[in-house]
Amino acid sequence: MMKLFKAALLAAALAMPMTPAISLAATPADILVVAQNIDDIVSIDPAEAYEFSSGEYVAQTYDRLVQYDAADTKTLAAGLAKEWAADDASKTITFTLRDGVKFTSGNPLRAEDVVYSWKRVIVLNKAPAFILTQLGWTPENFDSMVKTDGNKVVVKYEGDFASAFVLNVLAARPASVVDAVTLQANETNGDMGNGWLKSNSAGSGPFVLKTFRPGELINLTANAEYFNGAPAIKGVIIRHVAEAATQQLLLESGDVDMAKNLTSDQIATIAGKDTLITETYPQAAVHFLSFNQKDEALQPEAVWDAARYLVNYKGMTDTFLKGQMQTHQAFWPSGFPGSLDETPYTYDPAKAKQILADAGIKTPITVTLDVINSTPFTDMAQSLQASFAEAGINFEIIPGTGSQVITKYRARTHEAMLLYWGPDFMDPHSNAKAFAYNEDNSDDHYQSTTTWRNGWAVPEELNKATKTALAEPDQAKRSAMYVDLQKKVQEKSPIVIMFQAATQVARAKNVEGYVNGATSDFVYYRLVKKN
């Protein structure tokens, strides 16, 4: 019966539109074949790519002057620049390019390519352009801010931040360096090659695009001349397979080497098979419970303190959140430089009740809890409702659409809120500003931060520490500052950070070297081997 079911499921997969033909033979020894849902891709041009799957693609085909590499996704390392010198006083960084680097077209890397790449992002002004424009760059001033000097690129920036922050901005996706000569040759009506790059690559990365068919596949060929060492495999084929059941079937039958969108139930089933292996990777989003400080009943710090012991962290991650989230209690995600991975709080209702009693807090307290009306958020809300009731804090759950919940949150009209937050780029300030900074808490000074939205007038000590860390030029010292800042927020804040999202990947046991960092920009195939 199971064989008949598998046969029927495979037949259905073969009949699906926009799905590539699937062979029943084993995958080639030197090609990695991946089953993945990639229908989110709007563009694969690094100046426009702003989706999860397109970010993964850019990481394979392009480089930046400085980058977090497959060998160590936690350390900012030399990329196309072999060295750089920062002058924080004059807000200038001078990058010296590597010698002998070539784009996959064969064209040599030049300083002019770097300048063209960044200016192209600013001029095209697509979705991710804001990441670079925060350096004070505009189409009008760019030529005076970024210049070439032989094989050097001299960068000027504006803002109250140190060069360490700028380096992380320039390690982000839109700062990828493109082959200016190739793009200029393929420009149409002043589009700076944007149309051509929707189906081609013009980078220097470990892979070159062979074929891209939207909603169908991405076919990558290894770049044998890659400056950091040629990939161990000759290519990667990412097949668009939308259905998780079909992904599982293809993986179990050996028609793909890796499946990336399986459910937690499927992962549990696969975990017991001798030929397959599953791994869990932390992702960037952190999930939190927050208390609006405009509500007088939620202002006592004892309420915040008790709340940290009323979350059934393990109970949720061992059941309905298994494989989807991991306990994490700091605002900067694990897997990023500067993260605080200590989890000092556990579910302890007796301790929570004592904290409230010692502070003279009268219970019961009734609090409305806004939540997005979908799984797993509604399940999380129900768990919180049950566990907080143990200490006399009674949640009245108010489910709503995502837009309804967010609109209420931005208006600061909620009482308690269950939501999540993710960084826009790889720098701890992206989250520190959201969780540890708020110098103007007035209603007419809207800020897109968790602190302002929860009406929390952040203590001056934390505001000052956030600005000091942003301006610190030494990367190691700066990371240590953010760890200390997280400890303070972890200990005393009306925002209770509970979990970090996770993703699970299943693969054949003969596949080694796959790297899946905390964002799609940190997915790397260049170290993969098939034994």
Keywords:
531 residues, alpha+beta, eleven-stranded mixed sheet, four-stranded antiparallel sheet, 18 helices, 21 strands, 23% strand, disordered N terminus
Low-confidence stretches: 1-24
Strand content: 15-25%
Largest sheet report = 11 strands, mixed
Query: What structural class is derived from the secondary structure elements?
Result: alpha+beta
What separation lies between the terminal Cα atoms? 33 Å
Helix content: 25-40%
**Helix count?**
18
Q: Would you count the extended β strands for me?
A: 21
Mean pLDDT: 93
Radius of gyration: 25 Å
Q: What is the approximate shape?
A: globular
Polypeptide structure, described:
The longest helix is centred in the C-terminal third of the chain and has 17 residues, at 475-491. Helix 1 packs across helix 8 (244-252) and helix 10 (301-307) runs antiparallel to helix 12. The chain has 18 helices and 21 strands. Residues 1-24 have low confidence and may be disordered. Strands 1, 8, 9, 10, 11, 12, 13, 14, 15, 16 and 17 form an eleven-stranded mixed beta sheet that branches. A hairpin with a 2-residue loop joins strand 2 and strand 3 (72-78). It is globular, with a radius of gyration of 25 Å. The two termini are 33 Å apart. By secondary structure, it is α+β, with helices and mostly antiparallel strands.
